[in-house]
Design a protein that fits this description.
alpha/beta; six-stranded parallel sheet; 1 helix
Length: 153
């Protein structure tokens, strides 16, 4: 009888050790995943929709992933602007684009790169092809054509 009790205690002890081991492994893997995720996704900024207030994209948000077409406009009297700092990378998902101004509603795009810090407008894919993403369209009523994106001029 004593042998059975000793075996039950050993079995209970081993199960307890096993549960602690599994918990520790899961905790470690969770922390590893969180740590990895922050490094991979921390600096990515997802953008899309209407920009109706003055906005600046800086390199700290690189890359900017355009998930839906971006429209930059205020109203007929007060435009809104999108300023893109040198060195910023904008990646467009398929079929998305950038619209500056809309009819009577004015918008401003300021995107001036330098030779050392070009601004990149590109497809959000490993194999970019012509027509993957839409276009950058500047409406006739927009008040600022200060756009030399990545040209260094």
């Amino acid at each position: 009888m004593k042998n059975i009790l000793d075996n039950n205690k050993k079995k209970a002890y081993l199960e307890k050790i096993q549960k602690r081991y599994i918990f520790t492994c899961l905790l470690f893997l969770s922390l590893l995943f969180i740590s990895f995720s922050e490094k991979v996704f921390a600096d990515t900024t997802y953008v899309g929709g209407i920009i109706s207030i003055d906005t600046t994209w800086t390199t700290s948000g690189n890359p900017y992933i355009v998930t839906s077409t971006i429209s930059v406009y205020g109203d007929p009297v007060t435009p809104s602007s999108l300023t893109i700092d040198p060195g910023v990378e904008i990646r467009f998902n398929i079929g998305t684009g950038l619209q500056i101004g809309s009819g009577a509603n004015k918008g401003i795009l300021r995107a001036i790169g330098t030779e050392a810090d070009k601004i990149s407008f590109t497809a959000n894919t490993d194999t970019p092809s012509r027509g993957y993403w839409g276009r950058i369209n500047i409406d006739d009523n927009s008040v600022d054509y200060d756009t030399a994106a990545g040209s260094g001029t």
